[in-house]
Amino acid sequence: MPLINVKIIEGVFDAGQKQQIVRSLTEAMVGIEGENMRSVTWCVVEEVASGDWGIGGQPLTTADVKALASGVGVG
Known about the structure:
Layout: E1 3-9, H1 15-33, E2 42-48, E3 53-55, E4 58-60, H2 62-69
Parallel strand pairs: 1-2
Antiparallel strand pairs: 3-4
């Protein structure tokens, strides 16, 4: 029984996008494991507080992630 655990920074994705994450990742796993595993494939989306996530020693905020998504660098 696979468990897909997705961590995202709060406020980046809306409810519809989070539902799409669940659907898409479940489809990816079913594509690998087979249709019989759909009913036992778990997907959890957890939000991490803005600033409580870091890469390379640098904290990231919701605003940083939105800037990255729009093509603007984070400084």
